[in-house]
Fold these 4 entries.
Entry 1:
Amino acid sequence: FFTRDDEHQVATAGHYLNCVCTDWTYFYSIMFSCVLLVGLLVLYMVWDVNYFLRCVVTLGYGMLFQRKRKVTEETSIYSLCTTQDVDIFIRHMNNARYLRELDFARFHFYGLTGIYGKIKAKRGGAVQGASSVRYRRTIPIFNAYKITTRLVWWDEKAIYLEQQFITLSDGFVRAVAMSKQCITNVNVIELMKEFPGAEQRPEKPAELQLWLDSIETSSQKLRKDK
């Protein structure tokens, strides 16, 4: 039979074991948090995590909450100039950030129009062949803006997109970009015939022709330099 002293010793031992288990649980939780924090730090050092997260969020939001667009329609994404976007003077968006934002808008266009899905279905791909940005006015820090994307022309090997940065406060076009998206392993003219409203190519914009001429001039110069 247990005496009162035995019962007291058992209770004391149980309390001790409970404290030990609690301490070990707390220790493991702290260790797990530290490992997770270090892992995230290393991940941010090795990879541009924000870039990939932004791609996922932009594409996911477009596919889940926005209606599909015709390939001839304009698409828009919205953003804000934050402290991660500014130049050394911390006043407005730096020039390199514009090109990064254009990526997100272009991916969004590909997703909503379904053009990239058709390219992949034909075992093709899309790569940036050339781009040109004209900066008209800076985007100040903490200003909201949108980026519009529209298809302006295409040939056998590429599609040409015009993209605009427009501040929401005044509707002013802060920058205009033209990009040449080279489509691999696919005849683009035949591909576009699969999209309603794109059976016939539109007239080539004058500024696009001048830009293509400058690209060809540069290519010829580089060939001569070899």
Entry 2:
Amino acid sequence: MSSIEDTRVYESRYQQIAVEMAEKIAEGWYEVGDRITSRSTIATTFHVSPETARKAMQVLVDMGIVTVRHGSGTYVASREKAQLYFEKFHDTVSIAQTREQIVEAIATQRRDLENLAKLLDDLIARNNRDHNTSYLTPHDMKIDANCNFIGQSIGELDIWQQTGATIVAVKRGDETFISPGPYERVQAGDIILFVGSDLSRQKMLNLFNSPTPDPASLND
């Protein structure tokens, strides 16, 4: 027999007792016509008050499971009704349990989504910080003697338009020219410091390291 204590019940204590008594009758612990346990014994067995025991027995009477013979006691009236009552009770409990599980699952899913949203916000914030930090960290590039732009001014090169980078300094030997103007000319050995995205850095490298055009190709 599956004890009522093994099931999460959503009814009052006297209804729980009534269900367990109905289960015993349905399983044949008592035959139809048998006299069943007195209210005082039920109260002692289930550790409840006599009033709670009385209410439990009244439920069984109302359901037609037992009958009361005044001056004699309480007797089993129907095993079938006991079985129906027991099954109906557990169906109700099962529905209530399923509903609670669904509610808990929804709450868990909501918490998971909230945590996921927080993680996503944190990831975006970190990515933005990393991007901004990377953008503001100067890159450096040394001008080779074979560079096509030696002797040209920074203004003539249209650095921003071509690469999106901004030149912030030029190191030439022991000197450093901060924020060089558009008239500063590129010289071999210069180290150009600039800021920009990774794409801008790649464009700067491609621009200053591009091969010198073949004169023959210019005449084609």
Entry 3:
Amino acid sequence: MVATIQLYDLELLGLPKTVFSCNTLKTRIALNLKGLPFETKWLDFATVKEVIPTLTKQNPELKRPTVPVIVDSISGQDKVIQDSYDIAVYLEKQYPNTPSLFHNNPGVHRFFQQYCESVLLLPLFKLVMFIIHKQCGPDVLQDWWREDRERMFGCSLDVFAGNRDDNILAVKNALLPIIKVLKEFPFMTGEQVGWADVVLAADFKMMAALDPVTFESVFLSGFETPADDVLIQNWWKRMSVYI
């Protein structure tokens, strides 16, 4: 199949072409799961602000330029879709003969995404935030990133990051219900891989890409029993084929 889809992804200039953003990872994994070929267009934190508004035709002063964005030219006319969930919905409708992301139950998958974003992602981000800051690019880009995030958070990065041990504990607690699901099913919503697994795998890959040591010790081991460790390790192996 010829690639008709372009995926605009985010890279850190200090770690070129390292796939690290959990947001763009959702789209990348979804495309791989569906078996849809695509071409990656790499942007950094500076060029995102320049390129994305030209694609979405949105005023960057009114809507923050973000990735992922895909451009699909399958119909002979470019379709531009932004936001990982909106992209997933589009792919599900546009390519119905590929493996399903939602299995006719999008509400359950959307709920799980909300769970990950509200419970797991925040402590995860706090664990890798300074790595992103350091690797995002030259000093001028690092200064912009810090100022932009501190304005967004309403406090300094150091205050926002909090205590590392507290963040690790929060991640561990967020993963406990997931391990309980894996005791009964191979995937988050049952016997078939779906969007819920895509969301969780994107968070896992973000941590693995930026801090592999912490990823191994916090996300893949050190749970209540060795059997729990094996459950989540095996799920990660099943998902790794799509990453």
Entry 4:
Amino acid sequence: MIEAVYISDTNASLVFEYQQRLSSPGYTSIKSMVLAHPESEPPIIAINHDYYVAFERFASITISVLCGSKSDPVNPMIPFVFIHRLFTAIKEYFGTPVSPTKIEANSDTLTSIMAEMIDQTGYPLTTDANQLRDLIPYESFLSKLLSTSSSIVAEHPAAKLAFNQSPPPPSQPNQVSAYPWRRSNVRYTHNEMYIDVIESIAAMYQVVPPLSSSSSSSSSMARLYPVSAHIDGSIAFVSHLTGEPRLEMSFNHVASRIQLPSFHPCIDIAKWDKQCVLNFVPPDGQSTLMEYQLEAPNHESGAIDINYQPSTATGEFELKLQIKPTPGLTKVDTITIDIICAEEMAIKPSRCTSGDFSYKGNGKGEWTLRDVKPTALPLLQAAVINTETDARGEPLYLRISYQHKGCVPSGLKIDSIRMVSHKGMPDSVKPYKGVKYITQTSDIVIRP
């Protein structure tokens, strides 16, 4: 399947090349095609009837994977998953930011990594960064790092304390863990784990005009009708734990509403199906334990109540925001509202009680607010005016985004995380646990 892997810099100059067979096409045969390929199109190019190339552009390098077209039918996503696993391994071994210079200086180590990641038939073999660290020592990179650190300590005695407090060295090579996602013989002086529950909400609302013109009736107010609203979530985990402990993470009742979950290989899926708990031996370092989707409760827009009233006799629309009283939420860090109109229209605010409003031109305005507390009631009144005829109008749509910590839109909470097994860890060790809840909207759109 995989015939060759090429890594090039931003100028499309070859930095590293790994070929399964000498008969495979060289980098020069695909260079011009990759360089000329539009970014708007999928990053895959058919070279001829025998080969195609999948590639991904990163900040300072491009990784291209040459694949054989005549191999048995395979999942077309395999080359792209392989590229991201390779990029993760490069970051693990050579540090961030990734640069062509680091890759060239450590080409011998990278060649060994490639030999473990691809088997003799060209299929991905060992792609987990933690397992690779057991198989391939940090020869080129670590030797330079240690020699540099030693010289710094020799010249600056005050640096000895920081040097001695560095994490323990990685496990000995060729001692493979029973768990592919975890290094063997992991040891930490300070045992700790951190969990981030991260959710983003996307929603669309249509403004429904008032049913009555009577000012004394609640029906005289326009309301927002939810067209769609859903939540995407993930559980990020950072583990610095000695040995191979088994953990179990339980949640509140919201976990039973989770849809389309996808799991890290470490998760015991049978336990989740029966009890909605995450039972796992954690990967060493950073990982994403689970990603999921669910419907927004009552099709709401999360922590912010939005009230939009169309233009009245004054020719101005009105936008009110209110932070819902929510346990754990003390403030909303940022709120950004983009007001989009036809290009010939201008937005002229008459009242803005909080934050800053700026007109960007071409019918676009932006209202930004920071550190908004639940007691605040931000209000914006503005007119949409044709710059040529002075006629009044309405925005085409409003796009709202915000970020805050302390809770997530679904109401999901971690009830407990306990250690089921202490394998390799003394019973007296009590790891530190930290949990954060982070909300970030992808898009809330209001169409008047």
